[in-house]
Amino acid sequence: LTFSEGNATLKVSNLGFLHYALVTVGTPGHTFMVALDTGSDLFWLPCQCDGCTPPPSSAASAPASFYIPSLSSTSQSVPCNSDFCGLRKECSTTSSCPYKMVYVSADTSSSGFLVEDVLYLSTEDTHPQFLKAQIMFGCGEVQTGSFLDAAAPNGLFGLGVDMISVPSILAQKGLTSNSFSMCFGRDGIGRISFGDQGSSDQEETPLDINQKHPTYAITITGIVVGNNLMDLEVSTIFDTGTSFTYLADPAYTYITDGFHNQVQANRHAADSRIPFEYCYDLRLFYVTNKFYKNH
C-alpha cells in the first residue's frame, strides 16, 4: 500500500532538508504535504490553531492548511481511556486525550489532542484499488521551535516503531505486514510503501530495538578517518527527520580530532551563526581560467 496521492517522496528547496509526501485524510478528503520522520512515532496535522506556522506561499505545495475535525464527517476524538492515550493523567475520562511531542531540535514541539479519521491509501499494482484506513493522529493546536520556521508547515508523519505510528496501526489492522520502505533519490524524488518486505537479493542491516525507547537504531562497527581505523561500536538512531548526523563521545572526539590533525587548512574562528565546531578557511586558486575551491 501507499498514499492515494501516490508513493512519491520529495524535497522542497524552501523547506530545508526534510523529505515530504502528500497524504489525504478526512471526509471529504483534504490533502496535506507532511514531513516524513522515522525518528518519531506520531502523525500530526496543524489543527485550527493560532500557534501554528502559516502554510507555504505556494498553494500547489500545500493544498490544505489546517485539519478541522468539525468539517470531517468521519472525525472523532480519542478518549482518555484509549490504549493510545499516553497522557491519561492529564485528562478526564470524558474529554479528548491530549498529546505533546518534543523533538531533538531546540524548543521544538507539537501539542494538541488525538483524533481518529480515515487515511486514503492505494494498492501498488497494475490496477490500483483505493481504500480508507481508520487511523489515529494528532490534532496539533500549538507548534513551537523549528515548526515555526517552515520545517513541517502541513504536519509531520511519524514512522517510528511504537504502536501509535501509522505503519504499526496498518499492521495491527491486518492491512499490511509490519514493515515499510522508503527510498530517497539523488534528485530529491523517492518513494514510500507500506508492507514492502524488500527483495530476496537486497542487503540488510540489522536494527537494534531498545524496548524502553523503541527506535530504528543501527550499530556502527568501526570508524575510519583518513588511514586511521578505530575499532569502536556505536549505536545510532536512523532518523529521516534530522538533517545532520550527530555523534556522542567517544566517536565524536575521535572523528573531529582525527580529521583536524590531518586536514591541510586553517581552522575558522568561532562564529555564533555557524552551529558546527570544526570549520575551515578554504584556499582559493585558479586552474585553466576556472574558479575552484579546495575542500
TrEMBL record:
Family of this protein: Belongs to the peptidase A1 family.
Example of a GO MF term: aspartic-type endopeptidase activity
Biological source species: Aegilops tauschii subsp. strangulata
Pfam hit, one: TAXi_C
Keywords assigned: Aspartyl protease, Hydrolase, Protease
Record: active site: 37, 239
Name assigned to this protein: Peptidase A1 domain-containing protein
Signal sequence interval, chain numbering: none
GO biological process: proteolysis
Domain Peptidase A1: 19-295
